[in-house]
Specification:
Length: 175
């Protein structure tokens, strides 16, 4: 059976350029702050993989519900809390801890109306992220998660509104 659905239309070059600039600046800012923290003696990872997926949403589709500040910040922080809690209770050895981290993170995001798909990865990183993440425990939801997601949202506000494009007004709502 053949689907009648068509792929989405290609966005314009201007949209792609603003997306590129936002993602570049957002990830660069988090990476540089992490580098400065490393020099200051904070020996933990500040740039986590799920921020790459957040960059796609914040800068590529800023009008989407998943891209709004409430969803980005809330979804990441709630998911981090779920992941750290499960790791603290079960460790990483249980066959159930990874699937529970992701599924409970989704449940918690839906319950709090903060669904942000990269949050599932944020919960998973809390479980499988290694010693640098495990050693900081409940600091992880604050640094890097809250701090990094807030930085990315601030850059999204700047970049998306500098573009002056009507389809890039950001945010459509704050909380």
């Amino acid at each position: 059976m053949r689907s009648s659905a068509k792929p989405s239309p290609r966005v314009g070059f201007s949209h792609m350029a603003w997306t590129f600039l936002g993602a570049l600046l957002g990830i660069l800012a988090i990476e540089k702050i992490g580098f400065w923290l490393e020099l200051s003696g904070f020996g933990y990872l500040f740039l986590i993989g799920s921020f790459g997926a957040s960059a796609v949403l914040l800068y590529g589709v800023p009008m989407a519900e998943f891209s709004q500040p409430r969803n980005v910040i809330g979804g990441h922080v709630i998911s981090a809390l779920v992941g750290v809690s499960l790791y603290q209770i079960f460790g990483a050895e249980s066959i159930w801890v990874c699937p529970l981290a992701v599924s409970l993170a989704i449940f918690a995001q839906q319950f709090t109306r903060t669904v942000h798909p990269p949050g599932g990865a944020t919960a998973l990183i809390a479980v499988i992220g290694g010693d640098s993440i495990h050693q900081i425990g409940f600091i992880y939801p604050l640094f890097p998660v809250l701090a990094g997601s807030t930085i990315m949202v601030m850059i999204a506000v700047m970049i998306n509104n500098l573009s002056k494009a009507p389809n890039r007004k950001y945010p459509t709502y704050w909380w």
